[in-house]
Each structure stands twice: as C-alpha cells, then as structure tokens.
TrEMBL record, chain A:
GO BP terms: rRNA processing
UniProt main location, coarse: nucleus
The keyword Phosphoprotein is annotated on this UniProt entry: yes
Protein name as annotated: U3 small nucleolar RNA-associated protein 14 homolog A
Keyword Nucleus found: yes
Cellular component annotations (GO), alphabetically ordered: small-subunit processome
Protein keywords: Nucleus, Phosphoprotein
Chain residue ranges for the region called Disordered: 1-24, 99-118, 324-355, 398-554, 725-775
TrEMBL record, chain B:
GO cellular component: small-subunit processome
Listed GO biological process terms: maturation of SSU-rRNA from tricistronic rRNA transcript (SSU-rRNA, 5.8S rRNA, LSU-rRNA)
Species the sequence originates in: Dreissena polymorpha (Zebra mussel)
SMART domains recorded: WD40 (SM00320)
Top-level taxonomy: Eukaryota, Metazoa, Spiralia, Lophotrochozoa, Mollusca
Ranges for the WD repeats: 62-104, 105-146, 277-318, 320-361
Name of the protein: DDB1- and CUL4-associated factor 13
C-alpha cells in the first residue's frame, strides 16, 4: 500500500525536490532497519496531497491553509467597479456585517425526537376534544347502549305531504282529482301547467311569449296576495284588525250603494243573505249591540226601515234578559234596582246586605248623573269605595249619605293625588264646575261631603299628631340639640311634601269652601283658620296616606336611637382587615387568651409519647432470696438487677414540634372506614346524602325505588354496540370559532372515513367477485 | 248525634285490572321504620348471596381445533359468527348459536399469528409465521372461500394484524410496524423505533388513525398512521402481552402485563397509569374491552378469565373451569352479553358477561 501511494505521489508531483527525496530514502532505510528484527511493523498508509498554491479544480485544497482560502472580496471585487447589481451589493454588505456561521444540522436521532414530540402533542390536543363527551358519559345516571342519536329535525308539512301515499279508495279519488287535471301545477319546480304548456306550444312564438308573461304575472300576483294574507293573519294587534274590520264594513257599504244603482239582482241577493244573517242572529240569543251582525244592520238600515227597528228590538230583548238576571241577583236586597245599568248592577252585587245605603238608589243615581261624563272605571270606583266604606266604619250609619259624598270626594282626592292621570284631573274639574251649577239636593250632598271631609281631616290630624308625639318623644330622648317638636315636624314635612301638590290641594279646598261658603252649618272662617293652621299637618298626613313607602323610610326612632357601644365594637373588625398580619395575630391571641392551645397541645403530645413508649418490666419478686415477714421491701439493687429495660423508640414526630404522628395502626377503625364513594365525588355532603336514606322498596314509593336502583348501563340482547362515533362530539361543541374549526375537521374526517369505507367496499366486492367467478 | 263514617277512595286500594300489582298502602314515615339500615344490609347480603347462587356463567365450548387457539376475531355485523385461528395454521368459522364449526381452512404453514375482520364484514385477514398476510372472503352464512383473495408476502414474520375501523388500511407488526392497504403489495408506511420486535398492535376504534403496540423491550408504543414517526414510547417493568383500546373513550387503553397486572393508561398522560388492575396470579395474556367501555375481560396464564370494571383496581368476577388451560385469547361480544375465550387446550369457550343474568339459553 505504502509503495503504491508513493508511486502515485511520485507520478502526481511534477517538481521533484531533492530534500524530499532524501527524506524518503531516509525513511526507507529506517524501515528496513526496523524490519530486520523479525517484527513486521504495521506501517500506516499515508496520503499526502501536494499543494502548489494554486486554486485548481483538479486538486484538493486544505482548509487550514490560510493562503489558499478564498475570500469574499476576491470573488466580488469586480462588483466595485460596476454600477450595476445594487441590491446584490447591499445584500453582500449585510452579510459581511453579520458574519454568522450556519448552525450545524441536528443529528438524526435528535430530529426524530423533536418530530415525535410535536406529533404527540398535536395528537393529544386533538384527542382532548373527546374530553367533555367522555366526562358526560362517565357521570351519566344511566347510559343506554347503543347510544341513541336522536333526530331533532322538525318535519315540515311539505315533507309530510311528500311522504303521503294515497291508499284508501277515497284518498285515491281525491288524489286523482287533485293531480289528474292538466290545469293543476303538478310539480313545484315547473311554472306552467300541462294545459298551458300545450296552449303555448300551439301559438306562434311572439304571442306565446306575451301570453306566458301574462300568466307569470298572474301567478306572481296570486302568490303575493297569498303571502300578504298569511302575513296579515299573523298580526296580533287588535287595533289593526279593528281597523281592518271597519274598512271592510265601509267597503260593503259602498258596494251596496253601487249595487243598488247598477246591479239590482246581486243587490237582492245581498239582501236575502242579510235576512239569513238576521235569522241566525236571532237564533244565537246574543242580541248585543257590538256584534258583526248589528254593525252590518246599521248599513242595511239605510235601505230598509225595518232594519233599524229590528236592531232596536234586539237591544231591547237583550236588555230584558240581562235585567232579569240582575233582578234575581239583587232580589234579596228588596230594592228596585231594576232600572240600573248592568255596570251598576255588577257593582251592587258586591255590596253587603247590611249596607243601608244600597237601599237608596236615588242618591246613587243622582251621583251617577253628577259624574255622568266620567268614564265607567270611575263608576266602578264608586262601587269600590262603597265597599271600603262599609268595612271601615259602620258607626256612621245614620249619616250614610254624607259618607257616600265624602267617599266620592276622597276618591276624587286620590285621583287628584295621582299626578300622572291628567285626564281624571280634568274630569274632576268638570265635576266641580257642575257641582257649582247644581241645585239644592246636590248642594246638600256637597255640604255633607264637606262635613265628612273636615271630620276626616280632623281624624287624620289626630292620628298624625299621635305619631308625631311618639316620634318627638324618641327624638327628645336621644337628640342633644334639643329641637322643638314643631321644628322636627316641620323639617319632616319639608322632607316629604311637594310644593305644587300642596298648592293644588289648597286650591281645591278653597274652591270647595267658596262654593259652600254660605250653606255650611259651622262657621267657616274658624274652620278656615284651623285649616290654615294645620294644613301642613294635613298635607303631610295625606301624603303619608298616599305614599306609605316614604313614611316607612323616615322613621326617626330608627334614625336616632343607635347604640354607641355597638357601633364601637362593630367598627373594629373593619379596621383589622386593613392592618397587617401582626395585628391579626395579636387579635387571635387575644381572642383565645383564655384557652392556652399551645400548652394543651404540648401536654397532649407528651401524653402520646409516654403512652407510645414501652415500659420497663420489673421481674423482681418480693421475698425471693430474703427473709419473709411484715414490712417486706425489695432492695434497690435487686430491683435494678431484675428490671428489663425497655428499648427507646424513636418517634417520627420527635423533631416536629407541631404534629403528633400516630404510628400505631388502629384496626378497629378500619371497619368503619368508607370503601366506596359516589363517583364524581366533590364533598362529604354528597357521600352523606348517598347513605342517609334507605333505598329499599319498603321505605320508598315504587317510582322512587325504581329510580334509585336503575342500572347504570343498559344494553339489549342482540344489538351490536359500535364504538363511539365522531358525531358524538358535535353536540358538545359550542359556537365559538375554535369549536367550529374542530367540527369542520371532524366532518372532513368523517367524510374521509366514509369515502374510505365505500372505496374499501367496492374493492372487496370487486375482488371477491373475481375470485368467485374463477371458482 | 253525629256518626263518623270511614270513607275511602277505592282508587287507593283497588287494582285497575286483574294483571295489575296489588296496591299496598305504606307509611313511609322514617320514625315508623327503625332498624332500616340493618334490614337493608341483610337484604343486600341475601341478594348478593343469591346472585352467587345463580351464577352460572359457562354456556358452552366450541370443540374442533387440533391445536391451541391463538387468536379470535368477532364478525363486525353478525353476533353469531366467530373466526378463530390456531397454532397449527388452521382457521375456523363458528356459528355461536348452534355452537358448531361452519367452515375451516388451512390458512398458514405454522401458527396463525394474527386474525382480524375487515370492518365491512365481507372478509378477514390473517397473518402467520410463514411471513404472509392473507385476506379471506367470507359470505353471509360464514363460509370461507378456500382461496385467499389477496396474499401479501413480507420479509419478516408477522406477529399480529389489526384493521383500522375508519380507513381502508391495516397494520401488521413484527420487526417493524407496517401500514398496508389491501390493494398494494408493499406497505404504505413502516415504523421502526429501536431494534425490538413489536408483538401486539391495535387500532384506536374512535380515532382510527392512531394505533398502539407492545414491544418485547417492555415498552408500549404509540403511532399515528398519518405521520412518519412513532409518537411515544412507555417502558414498563415487564413486558406487556396485549393491548385494548376503550371503544367509548378515545384516549384510554389497557395493557395486559407479564407482572400479573393490567394497566390502564390515558394516552395524553403516559407518565402514570390511571389504574392498576390486580388480581391475576400469573402473567396476563390478553385483554378486551366490553363494547360499552365500562368493563374489560382479561385472560391469563393462571387459567382464568377475569372481568374488571375499567375504573376499579380489582376484578368483579373470575371465570375458570377444571379443564381450561392457559387462556391465550379473550373477546367480549359486541352486544355486551357474552365472553369468548380461546385457550391452549384447543377449546373456545362461551361465557356470560354477567354470571347470574337470565338469558334464556
């Protein structure tokens, strides 16, 4: 080998230098000498490459040789002279600035490791999408296998119709009628019927086009109409339908008028129809004014004199019937309330028989007339007020009339207080105007009303005063400022009253006073004075009545009687929260000052240590080896000799100050320990709940028992349970973006799976067939 | 004088029909029922005892193989059809309802190492020590066409075979794990990691591109069919013999180990097994999940089958007979009612999954 290489070298090197040759010869000589002593030296084959200093593609160039290294500037030096390649120059400069060797590529096994890690992470992440499904199935009270995939899609009528197959002869006949004709659109996708198509085919093209357009337009209009009707039918607004009805009536009216002039025949037809309606109405026993029939009757009244009369008759009839009803209801009241209106009758039905004021319908009627233009609700209010009155004070029986008046007035007051209802205010103004104009009997009512009103005011004042007194007492007890009672009350008033309201009420009072100034029995100015004196109180009282909430909010007792001690003690923890831990520790120490926990624990531990330590056993027998007799004692020496020393046991908690480790396993405890706990276990309550009540049939109703012992898993004999499907996830996925992408993925996978399967099937089939055909 | 009369609503005590149960009025007030806990305990005890009394799990055995049964495969669509392969290279198709062999073929020279059904139910695949994979078509009645549809030649011995549920590909294991497609002569993909043989392979039934294998170097290997490299390896103290995926929980699988235990793993957290199932007293040779995923059955060298709840450390049931030898393969039927076990003494046995269940057999 060595020789070969030498030869090669000699061939390769063109310039033969003498010293080199000498060297070689010298080496050869050395080799020959060393070979003389029998041992064949294993000469290493060497290969040296001669560098000529030139860069050539036929020669190796050693990297170590700095001279032969190719420099960048040598290669791109010519670039400096040119003006072109600007970007290239820039890039080169950047490269030269940041001279960084490219890191060596990772070894193969490292690369594999990284790829494995990433692939594993991706897979686990992908698998985690099953987590919710799995959890749910584990927690489920009962699982039915195979897992049902419920179909929640709603079946539309169209689908039902498509599914329908005519079977009975009747259905067949109907189907033949519906679909047999050529003038019916058979297929929804087609625009024209068969007959129409044929007709169009028969025409020339221009005409056909026109005709077709016409037909299409007609269809479209029809469908629009249909849609509109559908939409209108869905509208729930009563007002809309009322307007619609009115419009219809109007249209009918117009139609009738035109028909009368132009088409008497159809007009006659209409009339007969109307006659029929009337008969039906009479049969129905409804006889009310607001019915459809009655409204139409109004229209026809124009053409028939009788019609109006008929409506009147009908109404009369209705009145009779309803009156009879009312009469039977109020028959035990022995009053002639027959001519009351139904509303009133309804009101009177509530009234207690003890109430004598119901036996004076005249007054009521008058009142009613007085507030005639008020709405019906107000009339009802009267009724209500009557009831209330009846409950409240029966002692004023002899002044019943005045009470009624008074009540109406209070009622009106309430309305007045109600700021929002402006209409009722106006109505009340109207009443007052009327009251002014009214004659003697009414004034009587008014005076009575006035009286009762004043009485009420006084009463309220009294009650209010007592309240105030109580409050004031409380204030005096607690407050140091020593405010007077009046002052307190004033402030109280100013707190709750509204100036505008006060004014309006005062105005009303004044109005009443003016109106009744002469007719009152009591001296008016005195009253006025008193009134003025205490309007404020009255106001506040009234206000209290109308707004009880405000009253409860401002309870002076609650405001001023605060226990000082309590406040101090309660303020402390708030402070503590903000302070540092040291303070808290101190507080805890203070709180548990009486019981020394640490000391107790130390005692407990020493006890445990003592009980855990084995005791020395003394085997010395008294009297053994000694003289017997009374006062026998064992000598110390003997004791020492016969005592077996117990070994010192090292405890685990020896160097742990704050724990006691019990190293003895207590087998008695094991019996009472819990073996199983309910599966998704969260807290002890859950476990306790599970063992609290018995589950047997004896202690539970049948249904509960069944529920308690129902099996966790139900499978059916002969039904194959397939592994979990990808579709099981989809129900757990939420609508967020991530979920969506996941679902998409699963879908695509599913589709892949399906296609795979189908492909496989075809393959199998194909091959199987091939095989069998061979056979 | 007032006479109080007892009046009852007949609805409360009368049956509506003759077939109806008798209505028993009860007062459920707990104060009237002392000793409810002891009574209930006695009842539960009696029920348990009765369950043991009525436990008759063994249904029958399928006799016919002339060597130990090495592998079993369930038909994916027919509950009554079972395919078995034995150490003498014979494959038999059984009708479970009649308990008889429908057809048998000499599939391989040497062992039938692996057996699996193709998910469409039209054929099944076998692999053997003769370095071949064969696909056999099977008709509705369970007759096998004696000529294989496809025969694939491998370079090395195949240890086991399993078909993916969702893809048209199957995997074999041996010196390396190969992914095949039936219409190709060469494996689509091969996985190697180290030099040790993989002797068990199973596809995940839910995420059908994931598969796991057990290798002789005591490791469990995870692969993704779509990737080029294996995913991860877990090394246990002793070799795992078989592996089964939970069919309801995509990331859970259980391995049957030589150290008498079974280990349930979560594929996402392989550092620790979720559960260690102990009870066998010898190496566990095979494991199969129930289709509900709530239990699994294991067959062992100690001549027993055991049924474990998937989340419990101990078995709820142990099946054995006097004549049954080492159980080499176990399967849980697809309707969750039966177990099938193949053992070394050439028999296939059919068991009830619930020993005391009344099945009308």
């Amino acid at each position: 080998m060595a020789l070969e290489s030498d030869q090669w070298e000699s061939l390769a090197a063109e310039s033969d230098e003498e010293d080199l040759a000498d060297d070689r010869k010298h080496n050869q000589l050395l080799d020959a000498i060393s070979a003389l002593d029998g041992k064949k030296k294993n000469s290493l084959s060497q290969r040296t490459v001669i560098n000529s200093g030139k860069i050539s593609e036929f020669q190796f160039s050693s990297v170590a040789d700095a001279v032969t290294k190719v420099k960048l500037h040598e290669l791109v030096g010519s670039l400096k002279e040119t003006t072109e390649h600007g970007t290239l120059k820039q890039q080169l400069s950047v490269i030269q600035k940041h001279k960084q060797t490219v890191s060596t590529p990772l070894p193969k096994h490292e690369k594999a490791k990284i790829s494995r890690t990433t692939a594993y992470e991706a897979t686990t992440h992908d698998l985690s999408k099953w987590e919710p499904t799995v959890k749910e199935n584990r927690k489920a009270e009962q699982l039915q296998f195979p897992l049902h995939k419920q179909d929640f899609s709603v079946v539309t009528t169209d689908q039902l119709v498509q599914r329908f197959q005519p079977r009975t002869p009747l259905e067949m006949a109907v189907a033949a009628l519906l679909h047999g004709s050529e003038n019916v659109v058979q297929d929804n996708s087609k625009e024209l019927t068969l007959a129409e198509q044929r007709a169009l085919a028969a025409m020339d093209i221009q005409k056909a086009k026109e005709r077709r357009m016409e037909l299409m337009k007609h269809r479209a209009l029809l469908s629009y109409k249909e849609l509109k009707a559908k939409r209108q039918k869905k509208i729930k607004s009563k007002r809309f339908h009322r307007i619609l009805k009115k419009e219809k009536l109007k249209d009918e009216k117009r139609l009738l008028e035109t028909l009368q002039k132009e088409d008497p025949e159809s007009f006659l037809e209409k009339i007969t129809q109307w006659e029929k309606d009337r008969v039906q109405e009479r049969m129905s026993l409804r006889h009310r004014g607001g019915t459809k029939f009655a409204k139409r009757q109004m229209i026809y009244a124009k053409f028939d004199e009788k019609a109006r009369q008929e409506v009147q008759d009908m109404l009369q009839k209705s009145r009779e019937i309803t009156q009879k009803l009312a009469a039977t209801e109020s028959s035990d009241e022995e009053s002639d309330s027959g001519d009351l209106e139904p509303q009133q009758a309804g009101g009177s039905a509530f009234v207690d028989s003890r109430n004598p004021w119901m036996s004076r319908p005249n007054v009521l009627i008058k009142l009613k007339q007085g507030i005639g233009h008020l709405e019906e609700n107000n009339a009802e209010n009267v009724g209500h007020s009557l009831i209330v009155d009846d409950v409240m004070d029966n002692k004023n029986d002899d002044k019943g009339m005045s009470i009624i008046g008074g009540n109406t007035s209070t009622d009106l007051q309430h309305q007045k207080n109600d700021d929002s209802d402006d209409d009722s205010d106006n109505a009340i103004d109207g009443i007052f105007d009327k009251l002014k104009e009214s004659k003697e009997p009414e004034t009587e009512v008014k005076t009575n009303r006035k009286q009762i009103r004043l009485k009420q005011v006084r009463k309220r004042k009294k009650s209010h005063k007592s309240d105030e007194k109580l409050a004031a007492e409380a204030v005096v007890k607690t407050s140091e400022s020593g405010k007077s009672e009046e002052g307190m009350v004033d402030s109280d008033d100013s707190l709750c009253e509204e100036p505008s309201k006060k004014r309006s009420l005062e105005d009303m009072d004044a109005l009443i006073n003016e109106a009744l100034g002469q007719s009152t029995n009591e001296p008016a100015p005195k009253k006025k004075q008193r009134k003025r004196h205490k309007t404020k109180h009255f106001q506040s009282g009234n206000h209290q009545q109308s707004k009880p909430k405000a009253d409860t909010n401002i309870d002076p007792k609650k405001l001023f009687t605060v226990d000082v001690n309590l406040r101090q003690s309660s303020s402390k923890p708030d402070v503590v929260v903000n302070e540092e831990d040291d303070d808290q520790l101190v507080n805890i120490a203070e709180a548990f000052a009486s019981d020394d926990v640490i000391e107790e624990f130390a005692a407990e531990k020493s006890d445990a240590v003592r009980s855990g330590q084995p005791q020395d056993i003394c085997l010395a027998l008294p009297g053994w080896g000694d003289w017997g007799g009374a006062g026998l004692s064992i000598s110390k020496r003997k004791k020492k000799r016969f005592t077996i020393k117990a070994p010192v046991v090292q405890r685990k908690d020896q160097f742990l100050g704050h724990v006691i480790i019990n190293e003895k396993k207590n087998d008695a405890l094991k019996k009472h320990q819990v073996e199983t706990i309910p599966f998704p276990y969260c807290n002890t309550d859950q476990f306790e709940k599970s063992i609290r009540a018995p589950i047997g049939r004896t202690w539970n109703p049948a249904g509960v028992f069944k529920q308690l012992v129902k099996p966790k898993v139900v499978t059916h004999l002969g039904k194959i349970i397939t592994p979990m499907d990808q579709s099981a996830i989809s129900k757990h996925e939420t609508g967020d973006a991530e979920g969506k992408t996941e679902s998409e993925e699963t879908e695509s996978k599913q589709s892949n799976r399906k296609t795979g399967k189908s492909r496989m099937k075809t393959n199998k089939k194909h091959k199987g067939q091939g095989k069998y055909s061979k056979k | 004088m007032k006479v109080k009369v007892l009046s009852r609503n007949p609805d409360n005590y009368l049956r509506e029909t003759k077939r109806d149960i008798h209505k028993v009025p009860r007062n459920y007030d707990p104060t009237l029922h002392p000793f409810e806990a002891p009574r209930e305990y006695i009842r539960a005890l009696n029920a348990t005892k009765l369950e043991r009394v009525f436990a008759k799990p063994f249904i029958g055995s399928l006799d016919g193989h002339r060597d130990g049964v090495n592998c079993l495969a369930k038909h994916p669509h027919q509950l009554s059809t079972l395919v078995s392969g034995s150490y003498d290279g014979e494959v038999k198709v059984w009708d479970l309802t009649r308990r008889e062999c429908i057809s048998s073929i000499q599939a391989h020279d040497g062992f039938v190492q692996g057996l699996c059904a193709v998910p469409d139910g039209s054929s099944f695949l076998t692999c053997g020590t003769d370095k071949t994979v064969k696909q056999w078509s099977i008709n509705e009645e369970g007759r096998i066409n004696p000529e294989p549809v496809v025969t694939l030649l491998g370079k090395t011995v195949f240890q086991q075979i399993d078909h993916s549920l969702g893809h048209n590909s199957f995997a074999t294991c041996g010196e390396q794990v190969d992914i095949w497609e039936v219409d190709r002569a060469e494996p689509v993909r091969s996985f190697t990691w180290g030099v040790d043989t993989v002797h068990a392979i199973k596809f995940n039934p839910i995420e059908t591109h994931i598969l796991a294998g057990c290798a002789v170097d005591r490791s469990i290997l995870l692969y993704d069919m779509r990737g080029s490299a294996p995913l991860r390896k877990v090394i246990l103290k002793l070799k795992s013999n078989a592996l089964a995926w939970n069919p309801m929980e995509a990331f859970i699988f259980t391995v049957a180990n030589e150290d008498y235990n079974l280990y349930t793993f979560d594929m996402r957290k392989l550092s620790m097994p979720l559960n260690i199932h102990k009870d066998h007293i010898s190496a566990v040779l095979d494991v199969d999940y129930s289709p509900t995923g709530k239990e699994f059955v294991s067959g062992s060298f100690d001549k027993t089958l055991r049924i474990f709840p998937y989340d419990k450390g101990h078995s709820r049931e142990v099946y054995h007979t006097k004549r049954m030898q080492r159980v080499s393969v176990v399967k849980w039927s697809l309707d969750n009612k039966y177990l099938l076990s193949g053992s070394m003494e050439m028999n296939i046995r059919v068991w009830k999954a619930r020993a005391s269940e009344k099945l009308g057999i």
